[in-house]
Amino acid sequence: MDLLTGAHPGREAEVIDLFTATFTASAGEEEGALIGELVRNLLDGTAAQDLFVLSAEEDGRVIGGVLCTRLTFEQDERRVFVLAPVAVAPDRQGRGIGQRLLSHALAALRSAGVDIAMTYGDPSYYAKVGFTPISEAHAAAPFALSQPEGWLAQSLTQRPMTPLQGPSRCVEALNDPVFW
Question: What is the Cα–Cα distance from 80 to 131, expressed in whole angstroms?
Fold first, then answer.
């Protein structure tokens, strides 16, 4: 398995299909279509400096992916990125691919000078790569969270994470309460 960083020119449809299939298998056709369209919009409409695309590939097939996008806090100069969404092909799950992909994404963000990584998901899954739950008082989400226990973060520097200042703003593709 190869872990790759980059936008995959010419392979966007394969990446979108991976996310659609993964979310359809786990949460139904409607969720699969929603996340597939989110990934399409993230790839098509997010400025390069605000987007990291990372994938796992095996035998020429994309089997996992994570998209990381900028999350800006109005009164805070730290660089923050949110890891979402994350997908591993249904036939490849349970083999540690997601954990390796997340570790690869965190290393890429750290190398790029990102201060804090955040995500919104299953705390027990993301704890395996160093995420811890935080409150919205510690870091305001762009919209009200439907599952506040899934709001997670970690410092990517030697400094401990202190509260992020001001309201937050996500990239346009995520700027919809349905994702929060």
Answer: 14
What's the rounded Cα separation, in Å, for the pair 53 and 87?
12
- The CA distance from 132 to 123, in Å, is 7
| pLDDT tens by residue, 97-144 | 999 999 999 999 999 999 999 999 999 999 999 999 999 999 999 999
Q: Token pair for residue 66?
A: 């994570």
Residue 156 CB burial class (10 angstroms; 0-12, 13-18, ≥19): buried
Where are the alpha helices (H) located in the chain, listed in sequence order?
12-27, 29-45, 97-111, 123-127
d(CA 165, CA 78) in angstroms, rounded, equals: 10
Identity (one letter) of the amino acid at 36? Answer: G
Per-residue pLDDT reduced to its tens digit, 11-70: 899 999 999 999 999 999 999 999 999 999 999 999 999 999 999 999 989 999 999 999
Contact 150, 122 (CB under 8 A): yes
